[in-house]
Amino acid sequence: MPLSLEEVEHIATLARLELSAEEKTRYRQQLSAILDYFRKLQELDTTDIAPTSNVLSGDSPMRADESRPGLSREALLENAPEVARGQFKIPPVFDA
Amino acid sequence: MPDLIDLTLTQTIAALRNGETSSRELTRACLERIEQLEPSLHAFLYLAADSASAQADAADRELTALRKANSQSPKPLLGIPIAIKDVLTVEGLPCTAGSKILEGFVPPFTATAVKRLQEAGAIVIGKTNTDEFAMGSSTENSAYGVTHNPWDTSRVPGGSSGGSAAAVAARLIPAALGTDTGGSVRQPASFCGVTGLKPTYGRVSRYGLVAYGSSLDCVGALGRTSEDVATLFQIMAGRDPLDATTAEVPVPKVDFAGVPPERSTGRSRSTQSKDAAPLSGLRIGVPQEYFVRGIQAEVEAGVRKAIGVLEGLGVEVHEISLPHTEYALPVYYIIAPAEASANLARYDGIRYGPRLDAESMWDIYYRTRGRKFGAEVERRIMLGTYALSAGYYEAYYGQAQKVRTLIKHDFKQAFEPSRCCAQVDVIAAPVTPTTAFPIGAHGDDPLAMYLEDVFTLPANLAGVPGLAFPVGFDSAGLPVGMQLMGKHFREDVLLRMAHAYQQVTDWHVRKPDL
Predict the structure, then answer these.
(1) What residues of chain B score a pLDDT lower than 50?
(2) For chain B, percent of residues with pLDDT exceeding 90
(3) What ipTM score was computed for the predicted complex, to two decimals?
(4) Domain that holds residue B17
């Protein structure tokens, strides 16, 4: 099994996911099986192969650097779980 | 005139123009059929019945005025109801992406692809079901329940655009939008017996699309015929200043009248006979790697028979090889989750969507994400996070990006002149190894589900267009599909070829018993 329980916990922390003990066990087993399968890629020698970062060969066109109207503050705050004085409200970030 | 719901999009447009029906009648026919069949299909997550009816009345006033003035509408889709996969935003309509983490979210803007259809007169009737964040091959990963296949409601419709495919197949709607990151338009189109186009990467704007794998995501269309899909595609496609990845490549008008497109080789055509076969001068390649052990015999037979039909229409058939096909699956399931792990970082319970309250920001993130994401989304976020994490990046993500280059090269070799192999215009292959599988068949085995995508992933990794359409039925009465893959920005060739096929076959007009 390529993944230890500690590794699963570490990944979940990096990904900001709260997992139950049962989920950790299940994901450990499932992700290990998937990672095992990925080992297939090591069969290929890719020493001189460049990685693909864009499937199209053309350059990305640049747009003019001009300002344009955006959405209003009201529209952007409409979906927020908590709003105060026209801003997103969150708990304190620094200890008092 | 036949029942309104049985008309194709193309026929519906004509019927509206001629005044044989009204947008009101059409919209009502769709809404009535949805009401009747939704309990057994669950294709929709949201219905915009009131706004659609109001828009239909406005369209009818416009159509009446135009008819009085004896002029044609400049809006090709005026009064036509369509459905939108729930990963594309429509201002004012809830957008969940099939996830609890976007429950209640009402976007303040409309996706460019949808906006262009609306500007052409289309009416959005509702949002269709999808696997959560388009991650899945069956719609079983939707947080709001599975969609059922109209041909056999105990089976999946495919995914992730399963709601759109089922809605078109069951004739709830003439056409719908879907998205395709690893096969999510083509695979459900195949499972439901409809026509579905994944355009070239960069062809259709993704502004307003809930991002999954940004180097792969494409917005596509599903309809009953190639002509229907071409109509939507041509309106949606083209450069959008709001999406920097859209290409500045002109969108050709798809010519269904039948002049073979110019070949890129400049090879002399003088030796060809001047016969009138609609597809003469085109070459298709059949990749041996797509006909492997494990493929359902009836799927292989259906696809081979369809290739025979195309041959009868004038195409030249060559056996070809895409040698890195078997690596597409591990490459995709590293790259897509890696991109997803970054794209889905934005769902944090702060700016939109539900929030699980906690004392600290940290705990808000943890708890909201841990409780509101479904299992498959969590798995992919974790896979991607792992593949990008220190110490593993080169072995997983780095290697996957390099093998992606090899897969891309396979296609280049098939489409461009080379010393080793036949040069083709189009590649023909099965869409899936089997027809639609039963709901629950893959239980809690994610790898078994991933293997369903084995034939659709390569086109996404290479960025080439793909078109799926029905070519038969298996002994259980389930649709068999075939896909055509083409050169970058040559959707027109695929659409024309499928159209010629649909002129001489009737698989695409078969209707499920519901």
Answers:
(1) 259-274
(2) 89
(3) 0.95
(4) 4-236
B-chain CB neighbours of A54 within 8 Å are 215
The answer to whether residue B212 is domain-embedded is yes
Residue B386 to residue A35, Cβ atoms within 8 A:
yes
**Chain-chain contact of A81 with B247 (C-beta, under 8 angstroms):** no
Residues of A in contact with B361 (CB under 8 A): 90-91, 93
Task: Give me the number of domains chain B comprises.
Answer: 1
B400 to chain A: which residues are within 8 Å by CB?
Answer: 41
- Name the minimum distance, in Å, from the CA of B244 to any CA of chain A: 7
- Catalytic status, residue B408: no
Instruction: Characterize the bridge pairing of strands B81-85 and B123-128.
Output: parallel
What gap in Å lies between CA B496 and CA B482, rounded to an integer? 15
Would you say residue B141 lies in a domain? yes
Task: Print pLDDT tens along chain A (96 aa).
Answer: 789 999 999 999 999 999 999 999 999 999 999 999 999 999 999 999 999 988 887 767 777 889 989 999 999 999 999 999 999 999 988 876
Count CB neighbours of B15 within 10 A: 18
Q: Is position B372 annotated as part of the catalytic site?
A: no
Q: Is B166 within a domain?
A: yes
Select A5-43's CATH number: 1.10.20.60, 1.20.1070.10, 3.40.50.1820, 1.10.357.10: 1.10.20.60
Cα A7 from Cα A15, distance rounded (Å): 12
DSSP codes of every residue in A34-55: HHHHHGGGGGS--TTPPPPS-S
CATH number reported for the structural domain that contains residue B150 in this entry: 3.90.1300.10
> CB-CB: which of B215, B353, B361 is closest to A93?
B361
B450 within domain boundaries: no
Burial of B59 (0-12, 13-18, 19+ CB in 10 A): buried
Closest Cβ opposite residue B382 in set A27, A42, A46: A27
